[in-house]
Every structure is written in C-alpha cells, then in structure tokens.
Specification:
The protein is an alpha/beta fold. It has one domain: D-tyrosyl-trna(Tyr) Deacylase, Chain: A. 24% of the residues lie in helices and 35% in strands. The chain has three helices and six strands, in the order βββααβαββ. Strands 1, 2, 3, 4, 5 and 6 form a six-stranded mixed β-sheet that branches. Helix 1 packs across helix 3.
Length: 141
Amino acid sequence: MRAVVQRVTGASVSVAAAVVGEIAEPGLLVLLGVTHDDTDSDAHDLATKVWKLRIMHDERSASDLGAPVLVVSQFTLYADTRKGRRPSWSAAAPGSVSEPQYDAFCAALREQGARVETGVFGAQMQVTSCNDGPVTLVLET
C-alpha cells in the first residue's frame, strides 16, 4: 500500500463537476494506491501512521487536532515507468482487490476518530487542494 500524504489548508474531490468529498479546514489529503498483496492489517497500520504523523503545525498530528482527512484512491501511484514512455500498471491491484483495501483504510481512520471524506472509487475525479507548507510525504507498507 502506498500513500501520498499532504498537509492542506483545504481540499476537495469532484466527479462530473459535483463535489463528492471536501475538507474546508486544515487537514490531510491522502492519495492511496493498493498493490496485489496488501492486507487489512496493512490498511490499518498505514491508517494509524497517517493519523498519528506529527506533520501538522507545532509538531502535532491530525489525531491531536481532530483534523479532517480526504482520501482519494489512486492506482497510478503504482505506475512503473522504467521502460519506454508508457507506464505499466501491473503493480496496481485490480478494483476487486483494491476497493476493499481502500474501504478498510478509510474505516480504520474512522475507527480512530478521524472525520474522513472520500472520492468515488474508480471514477474519473478532479482533486483540488492547497498544500500547506508545502508538506508532502510518501508512505509505504
């Protein structure tokens, strides 16, 4: 499982010009990719790491502040661009594998007290965010 985590002052995700998920205050935007061998345990561990990372202002975590989290599925995080100019997506898990793991990640955040907004799994989405800092981290299980 791979996550790009950004500290943001706000973020939203739209599908067909309609906002489906939004945080209008400081929080985290998480772009989440799933590979073939990811498990529910990976989803829970990564969610805990994201929720408790001390990347908010004054070295606090999103959990310390009750900051919202916007989670967007993004299989392209597993692109392999080593050969040629056309990325390979073979490391990205198919939807039948990745959607349950995406849901498990979001559920694990919610179980820990996070207010979680989401995109629409598998949809063509437009993501808007204002990166704060900027702070952007890549996490992997």
